[in-house]
Amino acid sequence: MAIAVIMPKQGQSVESCILTELKKKKGDTVAVGDILFAYETDKASFEEEAKAAGTVLDVFFSEGDEIPVLTNVMVIGHPGESTDAFRPGSGAAATVAPAAQAETPPATVASPVAEKPSIAPAGEHSPVSPRARQLAEKNALRAETLAGTGPHGRVIERDVQAALEAAPKTTPLAKAILRDTGGSLPDTGSGPAGKARGADLGVKNPAYSADSETKPLTHMRKLIAKAMHASLQNSAQLTHHLGADARRIMALRKQVKTAVANGYPTDITLNDMVCLAVVCALQKFPQVNAHFLGDQIRYFSKVHLGLAVDTERGLMVPAIRNADDLSIQGLAKQLKEGANACKKGAIDPDLLSPEAATFTVSNLGNYGVEMFTPVINLPQVAILGVNTILPRPKDLGEGVYGFVPHIGLSLTYDHRALDGGEATRFLKQIAVEIETLDIHL
Fold first, then answer.
1. Closest Cα to residue 108, out of 71, 161, 159, 76?
2. Hey, is 404 helix, strand or coil?
């Protein structure tokens, strides 16, 4: 027998949820415990599991739809069974699997549309009982405009209840507007299941004026947004900040500029030097050169370094394979080639996969950023943010203090895979590598 899968009600105050991802589509076979779809409220994200085995016969909504709670989302059954009775708005009751009945309340049976209550004649106000007024104010309804059925035309609680049953449901914004303005509800709303929205009341957000334009997200932006959201939702991220004495790499950079002016073929940047220091540190801390896989951790013997690249299409992170086999010249060359390929749109898609790199570096120092919190590229266990160089006081010895240039380092790590102590020691090792770096031109 076909059964309906409803949008669960998460908490008493939740009236609707956003369908964020369909894990199973029409025609897919499901087993008990399979994830059917992901959804979110304004506070948290959830996944709905199948409570019965079968085939997905129909799906009534698309990803991104706002769905009232207890509404049928999909139907599971045997191929050939009809799903018409389960379609939202059909007026039929939803059949819920026995195993689900104790966990989620069945979908509400659609009842005949209630007759619209009488309205008091224009310019006249009806007397209202205290209980009726309290119920009306709670639901942003003007009780005095109703025609009462109590003694002497008094509006009583059942009159307000009848008006609420006949009126369309409202979004929180619409309810607030009604409460503030004392306006009237339209007969029908333009939201999901006929819910009245703020726009149905003729009130527009003042920020959405004629000088604004709404554009759909690009596919790249959607991918970035999804990855960043998943990273923060599915990991325990913390960030440690530390500064490294930058005098050594700044002196090396001057040497490189002189060498390039005299014909040296590779322009080695400060970022190239930091990346080399990261590679050296990862070889000494292999537990950071890893992927967290839920109940397993994959440790890599080779360093595949990811570098965040800002392009017109959005942020891309190409991987430099076997970076630990490269000299500073080879690393600088491949970093430059990877960045250029991303900006031209010619990068190998396989190199952009988060699984292609074992660790990522994101450098915002050129923009003058003093400190930031980079987001991990899952399943990697950490990412290094490189900040701008700033003068900081330092003990130069024998009681002498001076201002010394320091480069800011921000390490975000997944606390599920790394403890704070080892993450701090790794970050300190990067600083040590920067402060003692040696390259041969």
1. 71
2. strand
State the Rg of the chain over Cα. Answer: 31
Q: Which two tokens stand for residue 440?
A: 């041969």
Task: Classify burial at 180, counting beta carbons within 10 Å of its beta carbon; exposed 0-12, middle 13-18, buried 19 or more.
Answer: exposed
Q: How many CB atoms lie within 10 A of CB 379?
A: 20
Q: Are 352 and 223 in contact (CB under 8 A)?
A: no
Amino acid at position 356, single letter: A
CA dihedral of 368, 371, 376, 380, whole degrees rounded to 10: 90
Give Cα separations from 373 to 237, 238, 402 (angstroms): 10, 9, 29
Q: How far apart are CA 292 and CA 235, in angstroms?
A: 10
Each residue's pLDDT tens digit, 266-294: 999 999 999 999 999 999 999 999 999 98
Q: Give the H/E segment covering residue 17.
A: strand 16-22
Alpha carbon distance, N-terminus to C-terminus of the chain: 76
**Of 155, 150, 172, 1, nearest to 75 (Cα)?**
1
Best-predicted range by mean pLDDT (102-111, 159-168, 204-213): 159-168
DSSP 340-388: HHHHHT-S-GGGGSGGG-SEEEEE-GGGT---------TTBSEEEEEEE
Q: Smallest Cα–Cα separation from 359: which of 275, 415, 267, 248?
A: 275
pTM, two decimal places: 0.55
Angle at 296 between CA 293 and CA 298, to 5 degrees: 75
Instruction: State how far Cα 63 lies from the chain centre.
Output: 14
